[in-house]
Amino acid sequence: MKKIVELISISFPGRDLNLGPVYLKNYALKNKHVANNYTINISQFDKDTSASELLDCLLSRNARIYGFSTYVWNYDLVIDVSRMLKKERPEATIILGGPEAAGLAEKLLLQHPFLDYIFVGESEISFSAFLESTELQEIPGLAYRKNDSVMINPECFVEDLNSLVLPYECEEYRTYIDNAPAPVRSAIETSRGCPFRCRYCTWGGTKMRYFSLEKLKPAFEYLFNHPNVKTVYITDSNPFLRRRRTIELLEMLIQLNVHRKSITFELAPEYMTDESILALIPKLCDDEFALGVQSTSPTVLALMDRRFNSERYLKNIDLMKSKNPDIRLWFSLIIGLPGDSYSQFLNSLDFVINMQPEGVYVHELLCLPGSEFYKNPEKYGIEYMDVPPHKVLKNKTFPEEQYNKAKLLSYFVYLLHRVESLRKNFYNMGNGKDSSLRLIDHYERFVSFLDGKLDALAGKEISEVSSWIFEQMANDFLAKEENITKLESLYDSFLNEGV
Ligand SMILES: C[S@@+](CC[C@H](N)C(=O)[O-])C[C@H]1O[C@@H](n2cnc3c(N)ncnc32)[C@H](O)[C@@H]1O
Ligand code: SF4
Known about the structure:
The chain is of the alpha/beta class and about 500 residues long. It has 20 helices and 18 strands.
């Protein structure tokens, strides 16, 4: 009888089946020994599922091996369920993979006896080797206990991505999409790796590898044409690094996306030197484009080891706008970075709002396990939460009070930009006569003016609100028409009082 392996993903509602377990299953089943001896199932649960409900479900699957994908957002639940699962089924093997567990492999195996193994890094080869071999030291990327210590074997990357079976070719993936209760956001990789090494990130310093466009074409066709796929998210670190390939990829996407579905991806425009690429991007779809900036301060950029060329950035944005004046731009900044301060953060915010985007995402810095900031916090003058989501608790250049002030301003930039009339008014103010004031100064003054006059945080203090719920908070606030009217009339009073 074949042994059952259950690969478990805990995800957000409205998403497709997590690609990680699908790739693992597809790759492992190419191996005859694995295919003859194992049945591999994938199950996906909503992140709000209770631990006891998850446990009951997993016990009913009767698996020999349970493998969980871990991320910042599901780590606590995975740990709770693994503990309960081992108690009920001591003979079952429990394995964790995914970025959160990988960065904490040694600590987790030392702290939690109910965990058997952890996979570190890309795990297709590791997982297949694990099912085939009993020699632990031969399994790449495997973390395991030996006597009283933890051994971690070197990682192994899939060199030829075309050797992978793509998710849409997996029956389980297709069935999941077919049966989705509402259209979902589907993810797709066109490459793996990242040549850069931003110190807040766990992705960098890995070799770039690419899927061929011939292999990707039917995958995109499937996603663009499936009625249950609402949007397509390209998960690559930097999808447009290679000039020739980028042009071919963009042309292919424009041609295949006949229903003009929204395509999202992370875009760092300063790495793009080619005008034809910048001209093609706005043609992809009508949706918003998210562009990373993080910070414009040379000190902060040096400490996070990230390149930034403001001139090239502005030039490229202008070019994209000239090709499509209605292009919907969003920029991403990180707040709390080592070396940053209130005034430097204001400069970064000023830089992005001067490009007159539709909006700005401000992310609070997370010191993700495995990242350089996580490994050496003292070196960068920061302290962070030891438990997920690893938010920064202290930054010696960015005192808490100023951090909260900057976060409040960021929330209001988000909120004000959601009201088109206000966004346009601010942009007009920036074009005004008072050249002693920067655009961000107008926003800052208005936010001070609002103090005590408006409850846009549902009675909460800014310190209690995480940046990733800004969108939800703003949605809730703006859902009430009277709140928009009040905000607009406060803006008029602000102007009339000549503040
Ligand atoms: C998944 S990242 C990829 C970014 C892209 N490769 C780039 O370099 O711009 C997308 C966005 O998430 C945010 N982000 C990434 N890592 C973060 C971290 N450790 N803490 C806070 N925000 C982070 C950044 O604002 C970034 O632009
Ligand atoms: S932030 Fe982007 S560019 Fe920097 S290391 Fe991560 S994926 Fe690469």
